[in-house]
Amino acid sequence: MNKTSLHKLLNTYLFFLLIISCVLALYSIFFPNSTFLFFQQTYIEVLGIIDTGGNGHLNLLTYPLSLYLMNAFGCFQYLRTQKIFYLDLISIIWSTVLVSRIISILIKGDLTIDLYFFFGILTEFLIAPSLIFFRNKLIKES
Amino acid sequence: MIPLIIFFIGLFIFVNFFDYAKTFYDIIPGEIVGDVNFSTYPGAVYIFFIYLLFQYVKTKNLKYIDITIMFLSCFVFARTFSIIFNGLSYSLFIPIALIPEYIGLPLLIYIRKRVL
Fold first, then answer.
1. What is the ipTM of this complex?
2. Which residues of chain A does B30 touch, with a Cβ-Cβ cutoff of 8 Å?
3. Residue ranges of the alpha helices (H) in chain A?
4. How far is residue A102's CA from residue B107's CA, in Å, rounded to a whole number?
């Protein structure tokens, strides 16, 4: 793969990640109780978490939203500046999400194969390694 | 930085291993993926901070502090958004988590400027 096509592929990939993050952020803030994309469940039902009053609704929104925002910011900044710093940032975010996911699966166990597994969990296992692959390729090329 | 790393490790252990975490965060995991998601999202945030602070201590590279500031800004932004949309009620969560979040960001920016 030559340098130009690598850049094009990475930019397209990050643009796609940016769109996904923005959609997730919009759903989590404005439409948590509307049908979430093609899931036939609401965003909250897809997450499978219920708040019990108090400040539960704050935590339900804050933790995922901060990750969506940070990812959107990193993708946007990389596409704008093409600086490897932002690719580092996105790679670190997705790697930490992956590590946290693996730890929580190991601790809590009991994973069901459903739509969320394919679109939520499996993609997390693919994104971090692919970003690290792109990052290493770019560093090698430059 | 070392006390902060220990603090985030403590939070990570708390959210993953203590049942009281559900009361503290006022959240009940539903069936299927609820339990896994309940610990994944806060856990990812805590691991992110642990990694960045640890790397800063190890390398003294300010890049890690910059990323921490960016992420903390996103976090505070998300928190503010959720307060605006959902309101706020007093619980133990406010003095332990909410206030340090709002103090942490300007403090970190101040330290970053002092280091420069």
1. 0.85
2. 45, 48-50
3. 3-30, 43-47, 56-81, 84-108, 115-116, 122-141
4. 32
pTM reported for the whole predicted model? 0.87
Residues 6 or more apart whose CB falls under 8 angstroms from that of B44 comprise: A63, A67, A93, A96, A97, A99, A100, A101
**First vs last C-alpha separation in chain B:** 17
pLDDT tens, residue order, chain B (116 aa): 788 889 889 988 988 888 888 888 888 887 777 778 888 888 899 999 999 999 999 998 888 999 999 999 998 988 888 888 878 777 777 887 788 888 988 998 998 888 76
> Which residues 79-108 of A are in CB contact (within 8 Å) with B?
85, 88-89, 92-93, 96-97, 99-101, 103-105, 107-108
Q: In this complex, do A48 and B33 lie within 8 Å of one another by their Cβ atoms?
A: yes
Structure-derived torsion over alpha carbons of residues B81, A27, A131, B36, reported in degrees to the nearest 10: 90
